Structure formats: C-alpha cells, structure tokens
Amino acid sequence: xxxxxxxxxxxxxxxxxxxxxxxxxxxxxxxxxxxxxxxxxxxxxxxxxxxxxxxxxxxxxxxxxxxxxxxxxxxxxxxxxxxxxxxxxxxxxxxxxxxxxxxxxxxxxxxxxxxxxxxxxxxxxxxxxxxxxxxxxxxxxxxxxxxxxxxxxxxxxxxxxxxxxxxxxxxxxxxxxxxxxxxxxxxxxxxxxxxxxxxxxxxxxxxxxxxxxxxxxxxxxxxxxxxxxxxxxxxxxxxxxxxxxxxxxxxxxxxxxxxxxxxxxxxxxxxxxxxxxxxxxxxxxxxxxxxxxxxxxxxxxxxxxxxxxxxxxxxxxxxxxxxxxxxxxxxxxxxxxxxx
Length: 340
Fold this sequence. Notes:
- The chain is of the alpha/beta class and 340 residues long.
- The model is unreliable at 1-47 and 325-331 (pLDDT under 50).
- The protein has helices at 9-12, 57-64, 68-73, 88-97, 102-118, 120-123, 131-139, 169-187, 212-224, 242-249, 255-258, 271-276, 294-307, 309-319, 330-335, and strands at 2-3, 32-33, 39-40, 140-145, 153-159, 193-198, 230-236, 261-263.
- The strands form 2 sheets. The protein has a 6-stranded mixed β-sheet with strand order 1-8-7-6-5-4. The chain has a two-stranded antiparallel ribbon with strand order 2-3.
- Helices cover 41% and strands 10% of the residues.
C-alpha cells in the first residue's frame, strides 16, 4: 500500500470521495413568533418524520458520547437556511462530525444546506426509481460496507463497465451522495468514514464527461459540509493517467484531503491495508475479501435504495417545501427507461 498525495478521486467514480474534514452541519428549529414578538424556539425533540434517519439514537449517543443538551443548544438561535424541521438524529451526525464543537457545527450546517440549495443538479430529484438514477445504478456500483473494527463507516464505488457513454457525471455524483446518505441513515454518527474507490473500468474518455462546475461543488461540499469525519480515501487498481486527473481536480482540493489519499496498484501488497484500515472480513471478494462479490453487494443495496425512497423524497421536501416532486410520474419514466 502506497500513500500518495495525488488527489484523483473525483473522477474515479464520478464522485471523488473527499469527504469533509471534521466539520458538520447543525440546525436550529424554531416554532414561530411568540406573543411578545420574539422568536419562540421549540426545545422539544421533533416527532418522527419521513425525513428522519433510521439508526438507533440512544445507542449512537452512548457510543459517540453525544449530549442531548448539546443537541438542544444547537437549535438556538435559528440558523439561516436550515429547516426548522431538522431532527435530533440529523443534528447528532453533524455534532459528532465536528467533534462536539457547537460553533463549528453551526458553521458547517449552514454550508451543508447552502451547498444543497446551490447545487440542484447534484442534490435535487433524488428519486431512486427515476430514470436518471436507475441509469447510474445499472452502470455503476454503489454500496456501504460493514463498519471496520475501529467503528469507521466505509462507502464503496466503482464503474460497472468501461463505456464512457454510460457515464453521466452529475447524476453519478448525485447517486454517490445518495449512497453516503444511505450509510448515515443506517449507521448514524461514527468516529470516521472511509471512501473506497475501484478504478477498474476507468478510461481516458471518462475525463471528457467531467463537468468542471460540478467538480467545484463536489469538493466544496465534501471538504466543508459533509456530516462525517473523513479518515481516508483508498483507491484500488490505480490507472496510469493520474497526472491528467490531478490537473483537473487539484485546484479544488485542499492539502488535508490530499494527505488522506492512498493509492493501490493492481499488484500491490495489501496486507498492511487489511491490518490498518479494512480487514478481509469487510471487503468484497473481488478485492480479496470474505464478503460477496461487488456485483452481489450492489444488487443487495439496490433494494436498500428502493426501501429508502420515502426518505430521499421527504429529505428534499424538508429543505425545499416547494420542490416539484411528482412521484406519480416516476413509473411513467421507468417505462421509457432504456439501459445502454
């Protein structure tokens, strides 16, 4: 395993994993104006909603040493742009990612919602049954892996085939972000997160599919607004044209992220990787692990994407009540879906 300060990822799977530094987003729900004319804050935990996450809150609070008092403190005063329906589970992810620093959490929370507002091409229309998302799921592999012995979450991504015409950059980034969200939904706040990319099937022609505006938004979001602590970015089966990838993405990447990048050639000795980062028990068989194949794990996660459809739709409505999500049209879109 060789650690290299090259930063290539964004391209490896249409979505570089560079996730944010130990920062997070925070929210501050308020319930309106009191009779005195001042904002009235709701100090009670919001009731369960479709946009809430699915992990065990009590277990997560105890595991990560999070305080309900800190969660309440995050709600005062309101943060501009943050929905007042944000839940304690959502806040817990942000607070943990920011090492329980309330001020930092509030800053990152604002960045998080601004990024989603200003990047509709990456964060809106996230219906997993829609034609664009289905196209991505048919041509790329996306899924979380089991947590590591250190408790880290792991998100895997790979191109399923080498045809660049099947690679739609913005939609691929969107689907990757959805995969990260699915990991947070089930695993909740964790001491860290690892992004694992496999460059098999990546070719030079894929570089022609990159949208520079989306590259900038991608790295801005992952470096400054993601509610998770990035621990490492591991790239398997590294290709020979990293210099070209680096040239494209380097202007958008900070040094901290570069120092988290580990590149592994196809013939690399992976023993130290298994020992220090992800054991064989937590890896697909394609990568020398004991789990199912990449294709089987991806097929399993397709069911999870579908199960989480109400969450994806509700999460968008939460931050954009006027979103024109016409769920009834999805089936019509699927009928016209054609996979290359």
